[in-house]
Amino acid sequence: MSEISQVSTARESPVTHLKVRVLLVDDQLIIVEAVRRMLDGQPDIEFHYVSNGAAALETAVMMKPTVILQDLVMPDVDGFALIQAYREQEALASVPVIVLSAREDPKLKAHSFAVGANDYVVKLPDRIELLARVRYHSSGHISRLQRDEAFQFLRESQQRLADANIELQKLAALDGLTGIANRRRFNEVLDLEWQRGRREKTPLSLVMCDIDCFKHHNDTFGHQAGDMCLKKTAAILTGHLKRPADLAARYGGEEFALVLPDTGAKGAMHIAEACRSHLEALAIDNSGSASGDVVTMSVGVATVLPSAENSMEELVARADRALYAAKSGGRNKIFL
Ligand code: GH3
Ligand code: MG
Ligand code: MG
Ligand code: MG
């Protein structure tokens, strides 16, 4: 039982709002206690009361009860006037009001209905009767509420789910260390761009990069320095992309790939060279390595006009072979 001074507006599951919220307005605490005993402990009923008549209207507006049990005679207000006041409030206009009267009197009954009451019970009714009347008057209200709240809850849940799925899809496509596209995303994009190149008869270029003597860098400066180097390399690659459709991806450990749609060999070589020289210019320490004193990368470039006569796998294999040639050709080089 709670005398209402504050009503929580927190929304959890709609189920908590499907309880029949009974507000008893009665100045006599002995009546409050008797009604509480009848209603409390019912799983579908939430019992509240207000014994101060002057506070009844405000309390009712705040808590939006399902049913009001209304005393007629109170020291500070007139029960009839209160019922009329409920009816003038938008939030309470259709809330069923059951009058709890001390007297079995036809005139009081008639007047109660005239001012807007829905039912009239002489105090104190039998528990079974009171429960039956409360449930009878709240059934329509609850099912409407149930429907509206359930729809609202469903809509919000679906929206949250959709948002979460978008986030998950993004995460599933990104490399955890560098934040750029991962191998999975690379495969998806390469496939899409291959199809598009075939349809639109435009060249597709693939640039494969591999950091030189990265094992030496890791072994000499530590794994954290190695991670930092990977992040910087990723940033260089994305920084040199020119079009929205271009993609930079982490292909494997210290290997990266660029997918460049509608780009010929010349354009791809140009971007590859910009990336290679940019990394060299960062002068990340790799002293003592077989490929020089700073971190560099070797690059293989391949370009194809996608068609039925060639394949995506061939394009990847050609870029790989070019990369291997750049490695055997002395590293820090670009081969086509
Ligand atoms: P090469 O010039 O022939 O490419 O030699 P390399 O040393 O770069 O190539 P190798 O394949 O021998 O070594 C690659 C190293 O990259 C070994 C591996 O531990 C390291 N590596 C792979 N992934 C990560 C990572 O996420 N972080 C760090 N710090 N190191 C990584
Ligand atoms: Mg009274
Ligand atoms: Mg490698
Ligand atoms: Mg390497």
Automatic annotation (TrEMBL):
<dbReference type="GO" id="GO:0052621">
    <property type="term" value="F:diguanylate cyclase activity"/>
</dbReference>
<dbReference type="InterPro" id="IPR029787">
    <property type="entry name" value="Nucleotide_cyclase"/>
</dbReference>
<dbReference type="GO" id="GO:1902201">
    <property type="term" value="P:negative regulation of bacterial-type flagellum-dependent cell motility"/>
</dbReference>
<dbReference type="InterPro" id="IPR000160">
    <property type="entry name" value="GGDEF_dom"/>
</dbReference>
<dbReference type="InterPro" id="IPR043128">
    <property type="entry name" value="Rev_trsase/Diguanyl_cyclase"/>
</dbReference>
<dbReference type="GO" id="GO:0005886">
    <property type="term" value="C:plasma membrane"/>
</dbReference>
<dbReference type="GO" id="GO:0000160">
    <property type="term" value="P:phosphorelay signal transduction system"/>
</dbReference>
<protein>
    <recommendedName>
        <fullName>diguanylate cyclase</fullName>
        <ecNumber>2.7.7.65</ecNumber>
    </recommendedName>
</protein>
<dbReference type="GO" id="GO:0043709">
    <property type="term" value="P:cell adhesion involved in single-species biofilm formation"/>
</dbReference>
<feature type="domain" description="GGDEF">
    <location>
        <begin position="202"/>
        <end position="336"/>
    </location>
</feature>
<keyword id="KW-0597">Phosphoprotein</keyword>
<dbReference type="InterPro" id="IPR001789">
    <property type="entry name" value="Sig_transdc_resp-reg_receiver"/>
</dbReference>
<dbReference type="Pfam" id="PF00990">
    <property type="entry name" value="GGDEF"/>
</dbReference>
<dbReference type="InterPro" id="IPR011006">
    <property type="entry name" value="CheY-like_superfamily"/>
</dbReference>
<dbReference type="Pfam" id="PF00072">
    <property type="entry name" value="Response_reg"/>
</dbReference>
<feature type="modified residue" description="4-aspartylphosphate">
    <location>
        <position position="71"/>
    </location>
</feature>
<dbReference type="InterPro" id="IPR050469">
    <property type="entry name" value="Diguanylate_Cyclase"/>
</dbReference>
<feature type="domain" description="Response regulatory">
    <location>
        <begin position="21"/>
        <end position="138"/>
    </location>
</feature>
